[in-house]
């Protein structure tokens, strides 16, 4: 196929017959799905299901991450023409990837949301697909990990973030984007000794045994040293990756609720994700993209690339 196919390809989110391969419809038109994948609630034979959780509440500063999934999908329309650069293979040719759409919930019934997320992700996992989730604030990762751990046991977590999100919170009724990791460790969902947080640049008195690779160490020691440390910590354990977009410096991702200077550059994040090729990736998420605070769209573009890299990591062993 070639770009000339845009003359007759449109709305590939609904009309594509082959679930694998690139899409050549015009980036500025057509029904917007992630990477122009087919929208489907049928997960038979699906390898990766991309899904959105458009939920945010009580974030630290700037709300708006409920618009993250929509913006990330739109930004992803720039990517589906060619294999992601530098991987050496095309994950969209190797994997059957669908856009599973967004999770339904009643915005006025906030307390019901975590259970709905857990059930939503559980359905994807039970179908044998790996979930790649577009958030949403970081509170969504806790019920995702509940769904994962219920089926795979405690996982090794690789967290890209400016904040450790392990502040103490023993109230089971609180839904907080800043305490998901504390609760996940307390509930036995995450093996802290096999987990690492990358890009951290805020203080926390207790990281609960999770290894910390702060942003300064990545800047100072380089990407290869960071990847070696990640490998030593996670070993050969099944891995879940959560990527808070504020792991990136605000210069690269201004559209987030909690920007903190001194963060990762986009090239560093790209190299770190690329360096995870070969891990047993159960699934992953990209959260905290808040498009109202970035009129350039750069933050959503970064989020779309992160999600694409997660798909590529998942497909690496099957290339």
TrEMBL record:
The yes or no answer to whether the keyword Metal-binding is present is yes
Which PROSITE patterns does UniProt cross-reference here? ARGINASE_1, ARGINASE_2
Q: Which GO terms describe its molecular function?
A: agmatinase activity
Determine if Mitochondrion is one of this entry's keywords. no
Coiled-coil ranges per UniProt: none
EC number assigned by the record: 3.5.3.11
InterPro entries xref list: Agmatinase-rel, Ureohydrolase, Ureohydrolase_dom_sf, Ureohydrolase_Mn_BS
Q: Which UniProt keywords apply?
A: Hydrolase, Metal-binding
PANTHER family linked to this entry: ARGINASE/AGMATINASE (PTHR11358), GUANIDINO ACID HYDROLASE, MITOCHONDRIAL (PTHR11358:SF26)
Please state which protein family the record places this protein in. Belongs to the arginase family. Agmatinase subfamily.
Q: What is this protein called?
A: Agmatinase
Look up and give the organism this protein is from: Paracoccus spongiarum
